[in-house]
Write the structure tokens for this entry.
Amino acid sequence: MHIIYLHGFCSSSASFKAQLVKAYVAEHPQYRVFLPDLNHYPRQAIAQVENHIKTLQGEQWGLIGSSLGGFYASYLAEKYNKKAVVINPAVRPFELLESRLGEQKNFHSEQTFDLTDDHLQQLKSLHVEQLSQASNFLLLTKTADEVLDYRLGVDFYRGAEQQVITGGDHGFADYADYLETTFKFLRG
């Protein structure tokens, strides 16, 4: 099975959770993983992933997305009718990021870019109003997320399998404890 991991805003494939997924896959040869450094322009980020999807040629695949990556994973899972595990997902990032317009810096590469209204419009164009196959999703969310209101995810992923964990943080620091849950869901 092929796993596509999508990182969050201003993050990269070097993120903590991405590296946990990579290490898990290395220990389980039945999986392969695609860990792209997503372009900061939403349409280009989706094009990167869709170009990779085209190479899979009938191989079973699923998505893991964290924060903004959860938003992207939701769009792609809906489009391709695939399973996705979303971790503290951004439900409406075009609203969340509105107050952050201007220069941004990637947490890992320190590359800078300007977040513009065009970014927000691109995100709006990818927004799924309502899930058509909620059973394709597993929501992992922390109630003490300091970046996102977890209740938005609970509401949006209504009908999906949900694990709402009291406390925690946006980074989901104990994600290693949820790797088996993640991969079991994607296999199922």
